[in-house]
Design a protein that fits this description.
Layout (H helix, E strand, L loop, with lengths): L11 H13 L7 H12 L4 H11 L3 H10 L11 E6 L2 H5 L2 H12 L12 E6 L11 E3 L2 E3 L4 H12 L8 E2 L5
Parallel strand pairs: 1-2
Antiparallel strand pairs: 1-3, 3-4, 4-5
Helix pairs in contact: 1-2
The protein binds FE2/S2 (inorganic) cluster.
FE2/S2 (inorganic) cluster binds next to helix 5.
Length: 177
Amino acid sequence: MAETRSAFALNDAGMAQFRRLVERYPTKQSALMPALWLIQDQEGHVPPEAVDWLVEQLDVSAARVHELLSFYTMFRAEPQAEYVLQVCHNISCHLSGARPLLEHLKQRLGIGIGETTPDGKFALEGVECLAACGMGPAMQLGKHFYEKLTPARVDEILESLRRGVVPRADTDRELAE
Ligand code: FES
């Protein structure tokens, strides 16, 4: 691994995972996406010093890191709410009930889209396609995906999250091991 001047560091477990990732790909630049997940898992977001660290470790440009951070809605450059609920409002999900579902969530959480509850627990976002178009309405919570959602299921999910338990998802997309 490259010597680092950045103020960022992964913890020991994260660093071991990072080393395995870099070995797995044909070029170290290819490990950028899963490395971003690792950092976000540790920090809750990807802080500027972690961008510098990635530039040093993976020999990528800062512009490339920022490009991924701004393109993919699952990555965060800023500190975030404990649970960020991202509801797809693209056409397939829209046709299967995304709008009333979003209204239900807004009412239950007492916030609008793009807002965070005063206790910092929940944020609500409307996002474009989550690649679950036949299973809408769909919602993403980190790496967890909930599909064919109904208001009742959303209530169950919120209830569980309020107790600090992430409920079993329909799909978990693990991008880093
Ligand atoms: S349109 Fe909602 S997941 Fe594709």
